[in-house]
Q: What sequence folds into this?
């Protein structure tokens, strides 16, 4: 299985046929003179959940942020829905129906839950606000009970739910999730992964998920990529990677950071 997964990765033919919704080609990103991404190729097709796994510091979050325009790719090309977004400003990318729930949640702690959700919606017109609010409150009943509570007073799990809900308020076609399970209790992690699955299956939402929790991410994802120090080293279906001995040894059997 390991050789199959690796060969597939080398040939770059894991993806289903057709134009990808998101395509990353030869992307190199630097912090000063330090190269963080060393020529990354990756595709996300419409309706897929694709996950990127790897150890801490592998460059996963850097790739997520580069897609969103900060930092910028110094080399290579990023296209979304057939349009080159490599040099676009972050606020312009956000208007293209891509939403990001960044690592560390980054909600507005002094604002109420309701105000945080308004901030997510304000990227677009507010015409659907009530409808979208009802939708996220159905997905996250805990938030419904806490609409007038300040974001900073919520538990870690509730803040993560709020970060995802805020991203959903802009009605994205592509949802970028950076480490949604980080620092959360296993029960909350399970809930959040179930919600991601529901968004994909019921709403057809395309999701690109960066995760350290390789087991949950690969069980959920249609396809996955493995990143080691700024390089994609392997790709395959979620099932292939879950069963791959190298992936198991590195990320699923105590070698998982």
A:
């Amino acid at each position: 299985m390991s050789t199959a997964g690796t060969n597939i990765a080398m040939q770059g033919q894991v993806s289903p046929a057709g134009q990808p919704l998101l395509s990353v080609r030869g992307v190199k990103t630097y912090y000063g003179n330090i190269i963080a991404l060393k020529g990354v190729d990756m595709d996300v097709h419409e309706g897929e959940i694709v996950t990127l796994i790897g150890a801490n510091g592998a460059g996963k979050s850097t790739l997520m942020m580069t897609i969103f325009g900060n930092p910028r790719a110094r080399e290579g090309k990023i296209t979304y829905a057939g349009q080159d977004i490599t040099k676009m400003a972050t606020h312009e990318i956000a208007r293209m129906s891509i939403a990001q729930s960044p690592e560390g949640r980054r909600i507005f702690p002094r604002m109420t839950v309701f105000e945080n959700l308004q901030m997510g919606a304000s990227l677009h017109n507010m015409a659907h606000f009530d409808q979208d609010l009802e939708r996220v409150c159905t997905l996250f009943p805990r938030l419904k009970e806490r609409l007038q509570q300040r974001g900073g007073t919520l538990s870690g799990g509730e803040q993560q739910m709020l970060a995802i809900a805020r991203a959903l308020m802009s009605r994205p076609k592509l949802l970028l999730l950076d480490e949604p399970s980080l620092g959360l209790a296993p029960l909350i992690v399970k809930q959040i992964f179930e919600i991601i699955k529901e968004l994909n299956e019921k709403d057809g939402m395309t999701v690109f998920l960066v995760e350290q929790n390789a087991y949950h991410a690969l069980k959920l994802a249609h396809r996955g990529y493995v990143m080691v120090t700024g390089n994609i080293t392997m790709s395959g279906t979620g099932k292939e990677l879950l069963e791959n001995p190298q992936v198991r040894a590195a990320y699923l059997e105590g070698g998982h950071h």
